[in-house]
Amino acid sequence: MSERRSPSSALSPCIGLCRMEPASRYCEGCLRTRDEIAAWPGLSNADRLSLMARLKQRTLCVDSKDVPATNAADSGIDRADTD
Predict the structure, then answer these.
(1) Are 35 and 78 within 8 A, CB to CB?
(2) What's the pLDDT at 61?
(3) What average pLDDT score do residues 5-25 get?
(4) With contact defined as beta carbons under 8 Å apart, do 17 and 28 qualify?
(5) N or C: lower Cβ tally within 10 Å for the chain?
(6) Which of 15, 7, 4, 77 minimizes the C-alpha distance to 43?
C-alpha cells in the first residue's frame, strides 16, 4: 500500500548524499545543517515548508558559489522548539 500524504505535506529534502561540507557546514546533498537534519522529524509541517523555502535560497547561494558559513540565525531552527 502506498503512503498517503496531504497535498501540503513537506517531503524530506534528503537525497541520500549525506556528507557534511567542512567549509559551509552544510550537508552536500540537502544543504541542511546538522541541527536542521536532527530537528526534521519533530518539525511541524509549516516549519518543514519554511525550511524547504530557506533551502531553496541556499541552493541559489551555492550555485553562485556565495556560500556563507552557517550560524544559528541562518537555520531558523530553535533547539528549544524541537525538544
Answers:
(1) no
(2) 83
(3) 82
(4) yes
(5) N
(6) 77
Confidence (pLDDT) at 81? 47
Exposed, middle or buried: residue 73 (CB in 10 Å: 0-12, 13-18, 19+)? exposed
User: Alpha-carbon distance 44 to 31, whole Å?
Assistant: 19
Whether the per-residue pLDDT at 13 is higher than 80: the answer is yes
d(CA 62, CA 79): 25
d(CA 56, CA 58): 5
Instruction: Please give the full DSSP string across 29-70, using - where no structure is assigned.
Output: TT---HHHHHHGGGS-HHHHHHHHHHHHHHHHHHHTT--PPP
Q: Which helix (H) or strand (E) is 3 found in, with range? A: none
Q: Contact 82/42 with Cβ under 8 angstroms?
A: yes
Average pLDDT score over residue span 21-35: 94
- Predicted confidence at residue 80, as pLDDT, reads 45
